[in-house]
Input
Amino acid sequence: MKKYVRVLAVLLVFMLVLTGCGPTNSQKNTEDNKNPQSEMQSEQNKETEGTENTTKDTQEQETEEDTQDSQVDNETEIKLYAKTKVNVRSLPSTNGEKLGALSMNQEVIALGEAVDGWQKIRYEGDIAYVSAQYLSKTKVQSQSSQTQMQVDEITAEDLTLPADFDPDGIVVVIDAGHQGKMNSGKEPDGPGSTTMKTKVSAGTTGCATGVNEYVLNLEVSLKLRDELKARGYQVVMIREDHNINISNSERAKFANKLGADAFIRIHANSTTSSSVKGVETICQTANNPYNASLYQASRKLSDCVLDEFVKSTGAKKRHVWETDTMSGINWCQVPVTILEMGFMSNPEEDQLLNTEEYQDKMVEGIANGIDKYFGR
Ligand SMILES: [Zn+2]
Output
């Protein structure tokens, strides 16, 4: 019994000591407040590593960012970066006085979470507001700053056909422009040419959305694949993944090998002026040194796709651009068009291009254009 009391007493003292040595409330708070910051830091490091050492795509990175949002306390100050040039205002509204602008990748201290799409920030010693959609926890990375290719380069010979492919049907080959990482290697811009061009350029990035062109191109291409299949075409995709490395000439050679009845290359445009917008298609000139005999067909395909795209989307019609500078066209021995769906350097069009609803309209228009080309 005595022993039992003694054990109890020892336990009691031990508990007292524990409580006495524990952190005070204020210390605890400091620790808690620090946590999101340090988690942020390690998350950011992870992302940097991810970008440099793995082939993780942007989609995955955004998911990680979303998870972080819920971990940030109300009054926490965190570092954010402007995705693009964006206005700084005195009030959380476009009616607020314009105090200035952030440039792309400019660092800013955000105060708490965004409310109704507006982020409170510290700006030149004052409180100000920026539309939250234009801020990101990571800097916009140009693809050229990414390191080494991770994926082995493949050729037309390595691409395979879908199991249910019927060569007797109308064959449409879709090339979702670009790929997860650019290939800065060079290749002739046409058979036997001494002019060398980059095998696969980086493509552009949405000035408002921060979405990489290769991501948008594939999103639309996959929808187009489904729509054309539903309309009875034999559809073959150059890529259904970002994690691939195939040059523009090899993409064309694959379309040649399949005897494609139409080769549709999906891209988005960009330019230095943010006000420029609209859709255009591209084909070779009537004097192309490699495939002039396909000019008529390619021009018709380009006209059909452009006109129906405009009809379906209401986009501003630019023109069919005839040029012999595109390797992915010069290497073609089949009718080809490049569709530049819109300008990712125009904030409104960039956002439009990245909505489900507009993508459905684009796909409807492209498919209608292909139907029209084949007289269906
Ligand atoms: Zn492109």
